[in-house]
Amino acid sequence: MSSKKWLVMLPLTLLLVMGCCAVFNMLIDPFGVFGDPILDWYSYNETNNPRVAKLAWLDEHYQQYDSYVIGSSSAASYNVEELNDYLDASFYNLFVYGCDTRDYRDFAAYVLEHYTVKNIVLNLGINEAVYYDEGEDDLNGRMHAKASGRSLPLFYLEYALTTTLQSVEKLAFRLRDTELPQVFDVFLVESGCYDKRVRDVEKIGDPAVYDRAYTGEFSTSEQGGQLPYVKECAQMVAEIRDLCAERGVNLMVITSPVYAGQWNAYEESALRAYKTALAEVTDYWDFSCTPISYDNRYFYDQTHFRNAVGTMVLAEIFGNDQVWRPERFGAWITAGNCQTYLDGLFSDPPTAKVEDYTADVPVLLYHSIVEEPGSYLEVSPETFDAQMRFLAENGYHAVTTQELIDYVYHGGELPDKPVLISFDDGYQNNYDYAWPILREHDLKATIYAIGVSVGHDRYKDTQFEMTPHFGFEEARRMVESGVIDVQSHTYDMHQWPPFESGDRIRQTMAPLEGEIYDDYAAALNRDVAAYNQIAKKELGYEFTSLAFPGGDYTTLTEVLVHQAGIPVTMSTRTDSRNILVRGLPQSLYALSRWSVMEETTQADLLEVLNG
Amino acid sequence: MEKLLRILEENCPGIDVLGSDRLIDDEILTSLDVVVLVGELNDAFGVSITVDDLVPENFNSVQAMYDLICRLGGK
Amino acid sequence: MSVNSAAFLLFLAVAVAVYYLVPKRGRYLVLLAASAFFYLCYSLKAAIYLLFTVAATYGAALGLGALRRRERAEAAAEGADAAAVRRVWLRRRRLALTAILVLNFTTLALFKYLDSWLGTANSVLALAGLSFRFRPLELLLPLGISFYIFQTSGYLIDVYRGKVEPERHFLKYALFAAYFPQMIQGSINRFQKLQPQLIGGNEFSADQFKYGVQLMIWGMLKKLLIADTLAPAVTEVFDHFTQYSGAVILLAVVLYCLQLYCDFSGGTDLVRGASQLFGVEMMENFRRPYFAHTVDEFWRRWHISLGEWMKDYLFYPLALSKGLNRLGKALRPVVGPRLGKLAVPCISTLVVFLMVGIWQGPGLSNIAYGLWNGGLMSLAMIAQPASVKLRERLGIGHETRWFRVVQVARTFALVVVGRYFSRSSQLLQALRMLKRTVCSFGWRSLGPDALFSFGLTPVNWAVLLISTAVLVAVSALQERGIPIRKTLEKKHWAIQFTVLFVGILVIYVFLSGDYIPAGYVYESI
Prior knowledge:
Number of helices of chain B: 4
Shape of chain B: globular
Distance between the termini of chain B: 10 Å
Radius of gyration of chain C: 26 Å
Number of domains of chain B: 1
CATH class of chain B: Mainly Alpha
Number of strands of chain C: 0
Distance between the termini of chain C: 35 Å
Structural class of chain C: mainly alpha
Strand content of chain B: under 5%
Strand content of chain C: under 5%
Radius of gyration of chain B: 11 Å
Number of helices of chain C: 21
Number of strands of chain B: 0
Oligomer: heterotrimer
């Protein structure tokens, strides 16, 4: 080939390369710009660019929704189902990461123009006044051109001609995709929220443990910050207000909870100006500085409040008294009351005493009460009686898991010096010895019974002998006495290999080796349903608390258990205190339990009880 | 000329200096060789080869070196 | 504007188009304008400094030329004592040259080394218990400063020696000093060779243009696929070497040799190719250095233009200087005639490599790097008869194939050791890394896991292995004297097309848009 011909081939080859890359990008579509024709993987696309991919989803599915949440990633903490209940609507959470009120306006304009809309909930943090019109330069943060009004052909061209590495990576991640969210697919497609199933099973309570886990997330050194974009933010809110008014759409503006460290990083004058500017534009709910702002356990990090707090915010707005909130949580701000409100907020900040919203509840763990204790799981009736007497005489009050639930969720109170006494497995000797002794000392206990073993003294398949377990007749009697609460130690996920048939033996609730998600989830849900069915029939209630057999569980176990609606779980770990935090369901997860044995002295007990 | 060949043989053992007229260009003689050689030539012929003379053309062949030495008045 | 960017390619395309559209007479102005634009994109301050250097050396060269003219005139005058005239004017010329060179290199040192030296001075002050500290200047290092300082200095010396006539046309001279391809990555060119091409107004040549494009593609591939893949991993190991076993450190240093070669030679290919688009051939800088049989040869194949510069402007003057030769003669009775003869070249070599070390950086590790190379070469010179004798005794012909292989391997090993010093920021670090390599090699931790322990993924390794295999194959062919591009153009068009397609595809994938791995933007929430 002559050099001249080669030089003709050069630009043609370049064009061909660009063409091939563009087609590849359009087919794999890592940003969800071209309808993702092959993989149809919205969760991934939204992670890569929520602005573009969420609109792509809505364009196809807008009939399912009539209301939208607009905001940045803190708006991710609003549960659309709660909103649906409160407003009798079907919400889509159109939040995106990266604060940019210009994008909010564009979103509002777009959905109002193209979809049928009943409500718009607009959430504003502080960062909305710190950033404005950001992220247009990179493909991850760019607004869809059909909403931003920028050139549409250029928009498509840029996504088509960008490096194919993103497409290759999408294919690679597809192979690693699992049911649970990973760093590359963090969205729940249907609701638009972040998929926090994994994030939200983390046990929370012990502040020392929390601080250690979140080292660096709550740095609060800066001070004297300014809010450069107050004017732009207010302007955008005003435009959204007008757009909604034109179409008779209900607009609700919320300024969401802010961690005190971030709140205090800004000048009072700047914060006042921001709040005032907003009030001049619209009435709104203000939750920015409330008692929960001062406790980092209510926050994922400096700028994101927890989903549980989102629940509290909505409950306050819609007056749901089933949900606990602290005093001075939220206020309705208008142009008229704004100054008075701010004066109060800054002269007398809404703090709360830690003891008013947290409680340390140690949990004791017993198994068998027998005349001649042989193993560490066995305690003699005399010793048990002495231990119970010790508790009673020292002013400890035994509580049930329901009382814990009421405390955390609904604002119920706990007695002084609360302690939870628990028994695992459901042995007949609990009925014979423990029940009478407890009754005598006016204490209560929770027995975690294995569903399949109730009323049996032989293994179900092999008929080998085992320690006798009480039957439902006994269980009913104990429950009706008000002394004993029977809860679940699984229906049949606490098997013992030598005495079971079958090759898939579940000694604990953790997934079997190599077990795929679908099988495991099915097995776990089946087990929960089986226990509930029999408990409902025999005892009249479904269980609300579960003790993991062998103390063994994985993150996935926790995810599935709480998804199945069980609010309290018990582990056998003892490395952190059980600090219940009002409003935080995670403070009831994987509670520590301290085993009490024949040899346990009163001093040991005191140490457990006092921490 | 013979004197020159003797010096070359002494200082560049194993190099066929007569076989090439691109001794420098083909890196048969390296700059290190040249420097050693120049020192010897200066002494032996009583000339003073300067930096300005150190160009490949003057050292590419035995003839070129000979010409250089003659030009500088060497004996 | 980074060379490896779509923006640079676009700029280049426009410059090339304009170059050939303009009449020949004005073409050098296009190059000058492109260079100015390129440099201004980089930094206005640096451009001002560059202008200052250009003006100073331009004037100095004219001055040196004038001195020469007056000397000639005086020498030609009747009754003049030619030798006396020459003596007088030589002194004047030398003085003038020294002044401008001192100015040139002092500014280079200020930009490149001052902060580091101030840091050293501060630690000395601290040791002495004084509270006074120098404040670092944090000067922006002008792009290409080493290249243009060396190039203009070489030009000045040539003018001083009367080898070239000084350029009178300021704009033409400015183009010589600031020609943008060499600002990026060298090489250090010679006035005689470069200038005619720059100002000549070159005719479009399809062959040359094609070779230019091909060279650019080749250079970019080396940079993108090998150098850029390796850079973070090598940095990781050098920055946290205490966390790695000796084996991994050794591997990282070997990989660094590869990275450095691909980065530097790739960059040079890129700019030489770009320059060829304008019909300007720049000096070659690399000739497959890792195939060298001796350290001496390595340095004739690695950064050739610097080596040549050092040879002509430092090594020869030193080795022929009267002082050094007197010293050599004085040493002869002490060390014997053979060593005495070698004293001058050895000392000169050590000085040259000391300068090469300092050229790279101001630290002790750089000095150690220079001395290591200079020392090895001196040693080789001294030990040469012994090693020849040993070889003869062992009956190894020095032309046998495996002896050649052993030589290449040995040379590479010596170069690798040197790289411990040139990559480390501190001498102590280099020594500790060497110590770890020798003393805690960690045989037991060897295994596939070690390959992935410092940031290289399996995909990275696959890319590296394939690209390096291609690189080695191509280099081996070139080493046998097979011209790759000439051979390729005789192949079937489909083969040529495939090669071009793959090359452009890879470059396109890496250069089109910033690649942000998923999950970077979205952190933990």
